[in-house]
Amino acid sequence: MSMNGMDPQNLRPSGAPDPVHDAAGSPAGAGPGGPVLTSDPGDTRHSDRGTSLWGEAFARLRRSPMAIAGAIIIAIFVLVAALAPWLAPYAGQATPGMDLVTPTDIPGLGTPGYPLGLDNFGGDVLSKLIWGARSSLLVGVISTCIGLAGGMILGALAGGFGGWVDTVIMRVVDILLSVPNLLMAVSIAAIAGQSPFAVMIAIGAAQIPVFARLLRSSMLSQRGADYVLAAQTLGLGRGKITMSHLLPNAVGPVIVQATLALATAVIDAAALSFLGLGGGVPQTAEWGRMLTVAQNFLSSAPQLAFLPGICIAITALGFTLVGESLREALDPRARRR
Amino acid sequence: MLKFILKRLGLLVLTLFGLSVLLFLWVRALPGGPATALLGERATPEAIAAINHAYGFDRPLWEQYVTYVGKIVTGDFGNSTQTQRPVLQQFFDQFPATVELALFAIVFAVVIGIPLGYWAARHYGRWQDNLSVVLSLLGVVIPVFFLAFILKWIFAVKLGWLPTSGRQDIGLDATHYSNLFVLDGLITGEFDAAWDAFKHLILPGIALGSIPLAIIARITRASVLEVQGADYVRTAKAKGMPEKILRNRFVLRNALLPVITTVGLQLGLLFAGAVLTETVFAFQGIGYGIAQAITNSDYPVLQAYIMFIAVIYAVINLVVDLLYGVIDPRVRVR
Predict the structure, then answer these.
(1) pTM of this prediction exceeds 0.80
(2) Contacting residues of A for B153, CB less than 8 Å apart
């Protein structure tokens, strides 16, 4: 979503492993004339698996405070979402405090029995936030999987085959990219009807073009690499080269983008349900929906808007921190420093 | 250069053609078909059949498409199912509002974002740099509509400095020519009306500008860092180039090239992003129009507005690409 802060610069594989250095780092690639079969004891590049692109990236991640902070946020978020039935004092749409709420007086933080107060329906805000985490996680993960799967298939076809397949797929992707992400999600949700399911499909489908283009350009940048030439010389077929050589080496930027897309998906899901595309009753325990309702009570009960808003922002922050650290860790230019 | 322009124009036409096909099919893929979408709750089988016949939905698809394109070319985008007004007329009423808002937002983003990014790069690795990284992270992770709530609550509800919603105080009875309220006020000499319209722009403009601000700052920082380390900068430094010329002519000028592309792309995205901001502030632009159309299932409006926004987005991208060729001679050679 556009709104999502997904910057178009990200479409280019800035984190794409550049062929030259990747060849040196990954066990699969040895430069021309480089020792393929003979192992030099002084040269740890080929014997030490710890210096592979992913191994080193992981080691860098563990040292990065940004990545650790992000991982902690994600862990808490996932735990809360998974344990919602045990953590939440009330059911998502329950209105235990109905008698305590009047249109002009909504009990706020610190109400006895309801630590984060009540909303205008008499629902327990803490419970709704916990259940909201669950629905955000579901929408975020499923929609990103849809986008990832669709984009990987299109991108791998385009990047693997090249020629007219590439041209046709990329033209379609260009057309889809000409509609800003949020608008596309809105249009798809309009067809799919108003339900959480429609929101997942909408966000996922809107992400497909980005993933497709990213994987394709990343694969193209790998295609000229020496290890591909080597594989061709050995007589490997195109399908085999694409699946077991190009794809694993080209997938880095896609994984970075997928992590960042999770952040965007959480925000976009909230945005779509804020616009009323999520379906369900107004008291649905969803962060975006809670904000929609809260806008009518901004002056009397601002916490109704602030609490879910903060939850969305922190969750998005977690995924963004991990995604950005991963991008840095996989960036061959950064590795050299 | 001419070839470059022609190629880009060709791509633009192709994109718009593809988009028109997609949007055409989109309305036909709606649950219950386009007639149900048009009729809404009044959809009885007889009414659906009547509409299908009247609008030609019972004809072959290709024939419908030709009719659809023929109408578009003459500027007929149908009527809003909600207000019964022509969609194009409604668009021209609402579009200037979003133009005003988007311009405010992008100017805000550029004026703060570029210096912030430059400042961060100059102090690479120190607290200034970290601060700017944190700020741009916040800009990206805080949902626009939530930021809009925060701004509205602080500056409109609590402090009462700025208006909570709308485009202009209704009591002002200002004269409007172009529907760009600030400009109208300046032209007619109704400076109080212009000032009032401007005050209505501030909060939604800042909210809308937050994401471009973050992204522009980030790109500027990365770009300045890259150029600072370039060989030609080092050479110039070694030859004793005065610091001021080095900064302005060597570093800044080259570093701003990717920033210009980013600004253009972001400006295009603002027209879509306005949906959320305009909804929070009840600011009557095209974003508000789209939000209303979603609530009312007003498909003619949605279909046309998505097309318009895509055209605006594509044209802005084209202009940015051409501009890029003008500023950076290296692009033209390729």
Answers:
(1) no
(2) 298-299, 302, 305
